[in-house]
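Justification of resources, computational component.

The compute hours requested in this renewal are based largely on the per-chain cost of generating structure records like the one below. Each record pairs the submitted sequence with a full structure-token output. That output is archived, and it is also reused by downstream analysis tasks.
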Amino acid sequence: MNSLVKILYQNQKDRGKEGFGFVGMNEKKIHAYRATQEKNIMGFLNENPYSEILFHHRNPTSTPNTLKSAHPFIIQLDGKHYYFIHNGIIQNAEELAKEHKAKNIAYESQEQEAFNDSEALAWDFCLWINGKQKRMRAKGIVAFMCLETDENNRASRLYFYRNSQAPLKVYRDGQLLVISSEGGWPALKEDTLYFWDYKARQILKKGSLQITCENNVYDFYMFDERANDRDILREEIMALEQERDYLVSCGQYEEAEYIRGQIEDLTYELRLTKGRS
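The structure output for this chain reads:
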């Protein structure tokens, strides 16, 4: 399972390179791990084998690349734990944050005036699924997965949902269940909340869930830490170094040598930019 996740990551790097997190499960324990750089999280996966993994890597849209903003968000409510990951944009996150603050809910991702909009969605879902509000209030692009555990932190349900704005695809055979925002598998029916029941060992429907999206969905502030060409070059070099290390670990030495040449070319270009504004 760990190897499969690393291969999927290599094939989906365009989904984001600036924040990483996962929930790893085996027979004895549930781990939640977050990092701001790939090398940390890949090393952890190498050292800790899991039978199930929920993996997320992000392209920041509202908050910088910090541990507080990396998924999964972990929410404790009514003795249960919820491990939440989200792909998309929540348009009314500020409104949700004000409502949650009035209920004495503190966001883990809060840093000065900024917070992660996905955490607003996470709390909105957890409050609704526990019957503490009649409906979900979030609006925007939504594809999410949420692991629910019991009082002993044992997996009970894995919820997953998409609205019309975000894809979520499922593949299942006798040994493997893959739920992903990318891939060539059949797409889930939108606006239906599904869950994997760990006791029944099957996918079930929870029922209808409609999260709407306003027309101006792309009118949002894209957080970008890259200040100049040198930062962009450093970022590209780091990504290539990670790819080279991965290829070497797989024994693909010719491909790794080709990547090494690209790294040398970019490193030379970085030297030439020294002193430029």
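The CA atoms of residues 59 and 214 lie 21 Å apart. Confidence is low (pLDDT under 50) at residues 218-228.
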